[in-house]
Amino acid sequence: MTGSIEGLERFDSPGKGRGLRVTRPFKVGELLFSSQAYSYVLSVKERGYYCEFCFTRKEGLARCGKCKKALYCNAKCQKGDWAMHKLECSAMTAFGENWYPSEISRLVARILAKKKTQKGRCVSEKILLIEEMQSHVEDVDNEKREMNEADVAGLHRYFSKHLELPGHKDLLTLFSQVACNGFTIEDDELSHIGTAVYPDVALINHSCLPSVIVTYDGTSADVRAVKDMKPGDEVLISYIDVLYPTDDRNNRLRESYYFTCECKECKSKSKDKAKLKVRKRSDPIEPEVINNMVRYAKKTIREFRALKYTKTPSELLEMCEQSLEEMGAVFDDSNVYMLHMMYQAMGVCLYMQDTVGAIRYGENIIKPYSKLYPAYSLNVSSMYLKLGRLYMGLEKHSAGISALKKAMAIMEVAHGKDHFYLTELRKEILKK
């Protein structure tokens, strides 16, 4: 892979295994490389909004004549997707409402089909990279093992008619590989569009102080520098949301990727104090009180996640407001646990079409986000986008344009100035 991409080489990264490093300088915003997905799948929730083949979002998409579920830009896209869509087309019709394989099962089915049908040197290299991807199948806990078993069962149920499936052990390994190395394709506001495997991008190791960012152009992944890089520098992305304090980040990394980060920030914990900021009082708050509130915050976040799809929006919003009131007695408004629940509350308000409520939470979030996230963070640009569009909806054009321009400044680095999102955003601003 790297032999065909100027300025990059594969190497053995100390303590991390395989990795990528640059062999020439790269400036902030410069594209290191683009990668076409080896295999990808559109989320079922996004069917009807995006073309299944190229992930273009537009109105007037044409339905598959057989299943009536998949939609395409035109006959060319439909023909291009048939080798993958045929795995699902007749099954969706046959199973009807009982067709509900997981997204990872759908992706694994496509990987298996692609492995069998593709030939050639270039593709063989991609297959080799997939075979090399770490699975950590031996490290999977009971809960994840049960999920993998359910996904394997789903693969057999929904796809065995069109696929010759490997043995059970090999399937478990493949599911674990995809779980560790798969990428979530997101839109400009970080909404989930689909899932994909990019074997060459998966070579990039993690750091909580990333040197590059991965964004998406249709089904292609673009890797761009968010720091100036000199020859010999390792290419590093963040596998997780870096907003949270060091212990939280490493707990997430161990749970999902089975390692502990030893980057400069994880060793120094220099941002943890700001991330866990407490209210200023004449009497300092006791450490035990702070620790108890951190435990309460983590418990509330877990409970909200568990109840997200069973409670009504009003109940979820009340849960957010109660937890914010409780935490607010100890935590500053810029504390990451306060920000987390504000973000959830904003999402509920958006769902309820409460624009004023969503703006209120967003305005409380954006300033701390800008300070706590790295430069050129998509979390910050997506928040500016949300706020800008909400302002525009309320005819607050000045505030809207200001927010959208701040989003644009970040996106021009992260996505590249010629990206479709930037073209559309400029049109959005000019309309007003």
UniProtKB/TrEMBL annotation:
<keyword id="KW-0862">Zinc</keyword>
<dbReference type="GO" id="GO:0032259">
    <property type="term" value="P:methylation"/>
</dbReference>
<dbReference type="InterPro" id="IPR011990">
    <property type="entry name" value="TPR-like_helical_dom_sf"/>
</dbReference>
<keyword id="KW-0863">Zinc-finger</keyword>
<feature type="domain" description="MYND-type">
    <location>
        <begin position="51"/>
        <end position="89"/>
    </location>
</feature>
<dbReference type="Pfam" id="PF00856">
    <property type="entry name" value="SET"/>
</dbReference>
<dbReference type="InterPro" id="IPR001214">
    <property type="entry name" value="SET_dom"/>
</dbReference>
<dbReference type="InterPro" id="IPR046341">
    <property type="entry name" value="SET_dom_sf"/>
</dbReference>
<dbReference type="InterPro" id="IPR050869">
    <property type="entry name" value="H3K4_H4K5_MeTrfase"/>
</dbReference>
<keyword id="KW-0479">Metal-binding</keyword>
<dbReference type="GO" id="GO:0005634">
    <property type="term" value="C:nucleus"/>
</dbReference>
<dbReference type="GO" id="GO:0140999">
    <property type="term" value="F:histone H3K4 trimethyltransferase activity"/>
</dbReference>
<dbReference type="InterPro" id="IPR002893">
    <property type="entry name" value="Znf_MYND"/>
</dbReference>
<dbReference type="Pfam" id="PF01753">
    <property type="entry name" value="zf-MYND"/>
</dbReference>
<keyword id="KW-0489">Methyltransferase</keyword>
<keyword id="KW-0949">S-adenosyl-L-methionine</keyword>
<protein>
    <recommendedName>
        <fullName>[histone H3]-lysine(4) N-trimethyltransferase</fullName>
        <ecNumber>2.1.1.354</ecNumber>
    </recommendedName>
</protein>
<keyword id="KW-0808">Transferase</keyword>
<feature type="domain" description="SET">
    <location>
        <begin position="6"/>
        <end position="240"/>
    </location>
</feature>
<dbReference type="GO" id="GO:0008270">
    <property type="term" value="F:zinc ion binding"/>
</dbReference>
